[in-house]
Amino acid sequence: MSAEAPPPGWLRTVVRWILPGEYGDEFVADIEEELQGRLREGFGSRLRATAWCLGQLVRPDTVRLAVHQRAHARKAYRSRGAMAGKPQELAALLEGLADDLGAAIRSLLRSPGYTLLAGATLAIGIGATTAIFSAADATLLRPFPYDETARMYRFNRPVGRLRYPATEEQIEAWSRQDDLFESFLRTNVDRRTLTGVGPAGPATIGRTQRRTLDVLGIRPAFGRAFLPDEEDGEGARVVLVAHRLWRNRFGGDPGVLGRTISLDGEPYEVIGVMPPHTPFPYSFEYDVDLWAPLPEQELDRSDATAIAREGVTTGDIQARVDLIRDRAIAGGEDGERWQAAAHSVADDVSGSAAEPIRILAAASALVLLVAFVNVANLLLGRTVLRRTEMSVRSAIGASRGRLIRQMLIESLILAALGTGLGLIVAYGTVGLASALRPPEMVLLDEIRLDARVLAFAALLGALGAVAVGTLPAWIGTRAATLAGLRHSTSLERRSTAARRARWLLVGGEVALSFALLVGSVAALRALDALQRRDLGFPAEEVIVLRPQLLYWEYDSEDAMNAVQERFGFLIESTPGVVDVSVGGHVPLVGGGSLQTANFQVEGEEPLGVDHTLFTHDVDADLYEVMGIPMLAGRTFDRVEVRDEAPVVVIDQPTAQLLFGDAAEAIGRRFRTSSATPWQTVVGVVPELDPEGTRASFDEFTVYHPQAGGAGYVVRISGEADPSTVLRELTDRLRAEAPNVIINTDGTVKESLAGRTAREQFTSSLLSGFSFFAFLLAIVGLYAVVVSLVGQRTREIGIRVSLGATGRQIRRLVVGEGVAVTSLGILAGALLAWWGLGVLSSQMLGLESRHAATSYLAAGAVLALASLTACWVPAQRATRIDPVEALREE
Amino acid sequence: MAHQSLGDLQQIVMLAVRRLGKGAYGNAIRREMADVAGRNVAVSTVYVTLVRLEDDGLVASNQVDPEPGAGGRGRRYFTVTPAGWEALRESRAMHEQMWDGLVEST
Q1: Domains, chain B, with CATH or none
Q2: Helix (H, G, I), strand (E, B) or coil at A698
Q3: Facing residues of A617 across strands?
Q4: Residue A169 and residue A476: Cα distance in Å, rounded?
Q5: Is A422 in a helix, a strand, or coil?
Q6: CA angle A691, A695, A700 (to 5 degrees)
Q7: How far is CA A303 from each of CA A153, A158, A179, A208, A536, rounded to the nearest angstrom?
Q8: Which residues in chain B have Cβ-Cβ distances shorter than 8 Å to A30?
Q9: DSSP per residue over A738-786, as a string?
Q10: Sign of the dihedral through C-alpha A6, A11, A15, A20
């Protein structure tokens, strides 16, 4: 390192900024000299020398020197007097600003408690809003790292209420529409079992063409992309590892290249690692773990994503799709084959995140508003305390504009403090949101507090400074005249205006926080009702287990069956287990297939309407094990199960639809299309989960008899702890087959709770926000009452000396607060009424019956808290000593 | 011009300026204070003291242009004004009067 090295450039800039003018130059020169001297004498490293320089700078004397310098410059300017031109005016303005800044900082430092309270309040509002903005930014505003996302479209074939993927024939025809589409990306996604890296586990493999990576500009973080010949034949067994899997399973090992992993027992070579934030361009919501080449022969099992040309709309694409269909019909073809609906990928993905984010954005905006109002209120309280200061400054020549400017600078500093702290709050909130996120909102993991988010927070801060500073500055300086030095009428009037404004603001806060409280209580109650709803069977006592054996580890199917049979015995003998049913499908939880049906009852005409049909293949004992009652008829018998006989158990809605009544259905026959065999109804069970989780359509359920399957429906005793039993079950199965993968969501109740994850996410963040809004409103109310009591000390003293009782004093203080709170709650109720209307269309299970109690609960909580907030200062007011109070003035 | 008595730091700074003669600029003064009086102070402390003394007319300063070709930079050099010298002497006299007659013992 050169001994002649100058001090770092940034240090010079800092010094010049702090110390403008000649002494700044001197200072820099001195530091430079000293630094070089020290380096020459081998006085440690450059870092140490720089630290020494900084140490020289960070001194109270530096501030003194800076102040002196500025005062000096101003004096020089004044002495030039009439000579002043534009540049000098600007300099004077800047000097003035610097003075105001200093004064504002000193003034804020004099009351650290107040400064901290205001800063923290702003931080809560700014932090919450920034966090939700960053979430919205990551999910709604620009969810994808690929520029092409906005132009991506996918297609499906609507059949009845179901959606099927487009056919190869259709994709082929569309991809010829060069004027609309740039290219078609082909992908398919599979679940495999990954072994060879830690314990066996499921992995998602996404196959796509080499071209896709080029089109989207995706490059592996390291390693290489697919080669052209790797798409030949069956496709080469090479994979690119997604960043997350690389980190989690490979421990971020850079030596992963060339390593062999095994997918369903087949070896694959790792050729590269993908960069982070690189979603697979099929489902942006569920990321894949591995990328592999998509061979030609797999195209007919692949999905297509079209990238439209710039300016092409969904409408344009749909019109073309319809045109192709109409031409086919004109050519005598079946129109159904060419039917398709185009939809934008961006809309699909944002859609799942949109509702919660919108609700939370509205909620955080309310918190922000409450925070602003609160701080405005604090500032307003402060202006009253500072009336003498203002009057003195006004008397010695400060213009009102100057006073307003100084107060605005104070609120700007507070806002800066609030923004800084708010970023910490935002960081925490984002972490929390990420931890609570529902599984489908994968994009929430992509949230970054980047430059955009910082800019947003800064904007909020600036907005906050103006929002909280303007009113107090206006009122606080209104009558800051010489007369104000005495306790004159104008001052009284100003106090009254400030008091009215403060009460108004508190009322507003109460209103906003009441609305938020009602909303969150209603959301929580809806969620609770959703989770506690009667499913028609004891869902908390039913565990579903799907142990998955690594089939390539077994020589024969018999060997696997033998293990599975032993599983059955092991499960049955586990303590806490009452009964077990073996089967592939479990209603509500998994398996089953959706199709459309045109029902026809024997001896009647087909219904002629497409109904959505859910079919489950189940063993005879399923209903008994799950505790599902038979409404009519019986379950299957052993023979029917063994033979997979054409008999069915149907659910209540199906019986109603086809036969009018459950009892009528027994022994009757129906079919689901003219091409399927007749089926005899042997039993009717209730509709499971009649209130629904997120059913988008009315389903009809039909159960077919079938034995075997890899799933176990386990009924546990009501006294047993499900998690203990589950642990014991997994231990036993692992002891039998160490490499078994056990898929389970726990009890049916827990598994269904997972489906309300989005509601849980929304309502927990919503409650957090409303709690903060509530807290702020109560703190605001308390602060106002306390300071008003302070201002009325003299009045209260006189009242006490004239014989007012404690109760009368209390009533005097509490009365005003209670009146304002009541009005606030009323206004908030109107807001909540409107808000709940919006919320109920967005949130599942939110109904008006939850609303009434929510109003009561929120009202009670708020009323109690605000009464306390008024009572405490009121109690203190009763202890005012009249003699002291009168002497004080 | 009547002065309030000089502070300890002010005296040391002025004495350092005086000792350095024509070479009294910020960092040199700082070093002189450290070397002779054992007073290690920050650069800014030296300047704050100097500017206040300058305001009081006890020191004066002038900017000296850099020597041509030497690659050096111009510095601001300080001198003690006659009023400053007077004040220093007053301080010394005051100290000596106060010491007068005291026996140095513990």
Answers
A1: 8-99 (1.10.10.10)
A2: coil
A3: A704
A4: 75
A5: helix
A6: 85
A7: 11, 15, 21, 10, 38
A8: 25-27, 30, 43
A9: TT-EEEEEEEHHHHHHHHTHHHHHHHHHHHHHHHHHHHHHHHHHHHHHH
A10: positive
In the structure encoding, which two tokens stand for residue B14, read together?
């002025």
- How far apart, in whole angstroms, are the C-alpha atoms of residue A136 and residue A130? 10
Count of alpha carbons within 13 Å of A329, Cβ hemisphere only? 10
pLDDT band at A442 (very low <50, low <70, confident <90, very high): low
Q: In a mutagenesis test of the B interface, which of A61, A63, A69, A75 is the best target, namely the one with the most B β-carbons within 10 Å? A: A61
Cα(A339)–Cα(A335) distance, integer angstroms? 6
Written as six digits, the tokens of A343 are: 């939809």
**Its pTM surpasses 0.95:** no
pLDDT tens digits, residue range A222-268?
Answer: 899 898 888 888 888 999 999 888 988 888 888 889 999 988 888 99
Query: What is the residue type of A867?
Result: L
DSSP 8-class letter at A837? H
Identify which of A148, A160, A156, A139 has the alpha carbon closest to the alpha carbon of residue A343.
A156
Q: pLDDT, tens digit, for every residue of A682-730?
A: 999 988 875 554 444 467 889 999 877 778 889 998 888 888 999 999 8
Among B residues 18-57, those touching chain A with beta carbons less than 8 Å apart = 25-27, 30, 42-45, 47-48, 51-52
**DSSP classification of residue A178:** T
Alpha-carbon distance values, A258 to A111, A201, A261, A278, A592 (Å): 64, 21, 10, 22, 40
Domain chopping of chain A, boundaries: 9-84, 99-151+349-486, 167-308, 497-534+755-889, 539-754
Question: Which pair of structure tokens corresponds to residue A675?
Answer: 């091409």
A305, amino acid identity:
T
